C-alpha cells in the first residue's frame, strides 16, 4: 500500500469516527458524575431469573406391576438380550463389519479380518524396567 492510499484510508476513518465520538460525548454529558455523592441515581430494581418459571410437574410412570407384566409378556430379560445381540447393519462400502458374539461368550472378529497374536512378553525399551517383570509374576 502506498503513502497516498494509506493517507486516504486514514482520512476516511477519521471522518467516520468523528460523529461517533460526538454522540458518545453527548451521552456522557447526560449521565450524572459517578464521583458526585449527591448525584441522582435511578432506583434499584431486581427481577428474579425464576419469575417466569413453570414446573413441568411429576411424570406419570405408571404401575411397576404393569411394567413387570409387560416385560414378562414380551419374553423377559431374554428379549432385551436378543435385541442387543442382533448384528448392526453393515456400513456402506463394507467397512466397519460388526463383531459377532459366539457361543461361550468370546468375541470373534468378522471373517477375513487379519488377527495378530499378542506378544508373549512386553518389550521394555527403557533401561532398568526389566526388574518390574519379576514383581508382576
Overview of this protein structure:
The protein is mainly α and about 140 residues long. It has 4 helices and 2 strands. It has helices spanning about 5-30, 65-75, 75-85, 130-135; strands at about 100, 105-110. Strands 1-2 form a two-stranded antiparallel sheet. The longest helix has 28 residues, at about 5-30. The chain is flat, with a radius of gyration of 38 Å. The two termini are about 75 Å apart. The model has no long low-confidence stretch (mean pLDDT about 75). Keywords: Signal.
In short:
The protein is mainly alpha-helical. The protein has four helices and two strands.
| Coarse morphology | flat
Helical segment tally? 4
Written as H for each helix and E for each strand, in order along the chain, the element string is HHHEEH
On the 0 to 100 scale, the average pLDDT is 74
Structural class per helix/strand content? mainly alpha
Low-confidence stretches: none
* Alpha carbon gap, first and last residue: 73 Å
Strand order of the largest sheet: 1-2
Radius of gyration, taken over Cα atoms and rounded to an integer in Å: 38 Å
Strand fraction equals under 5%
Give the % helix. Answer: 25-40%
Q: What composes the largest sheet?
A: 2 strands, antiparallel
Number of strands: 2
Biased composition (Low complexity): 87-105
Region (Disordered): 84-137
Biased composition (Pro residues): 108-120
Keywords: Signal
What are the SSEs and their pairings?
Blueprint: H1 3-30, H2 64-74, H3 77-85, E1 100-101, E2 107-108, H4 131-136
Antiparallel strand pairs: 1-2
Highlighted features:
single chain; 137 residues; mainly alpha; 2 strands
Amino acid at each position: 500500500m502506498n503513502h497516498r492510499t494509506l493517507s486516504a484510508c486514514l482520512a476516511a476513518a477519521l471522518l467516520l469516527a468523528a460523529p461517533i465520538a460526538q454522540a458518545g460525548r453527548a451521552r456522557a454529558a447526560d449521565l450524572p458524575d459517578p464521583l458526585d455523592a449527591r448525584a441522582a441515581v435511578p432506583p434499584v430494581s431486581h427481577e428474579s431469573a425464576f419469575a417466569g418459571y413453570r414446573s413441568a410437574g411429576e411424570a406419570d410412570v405408571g404401575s411397576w406391576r404393569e411394567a413387570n407384566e409387560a416385560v414378562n409378556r414380551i419374553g423377559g430379560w431374554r428379549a432385551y438380550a436378543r435385541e442387543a445381540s442382533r448384528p448392526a447393519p453393515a456400513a456402506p462400502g463394507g467397512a466397519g463389519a460388526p463383531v459377532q458374539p459366539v457361543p461361550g461368550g468370546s468375541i470373534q472378529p468378522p471373517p477375513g479380518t487379519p488377527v495378530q497374536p499378542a506378544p508373549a512378553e512386553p518389550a521394555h525399551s527403557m533401561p532398568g524396567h526389566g526388574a518390574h517383570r519379576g514383581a508382576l509374576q
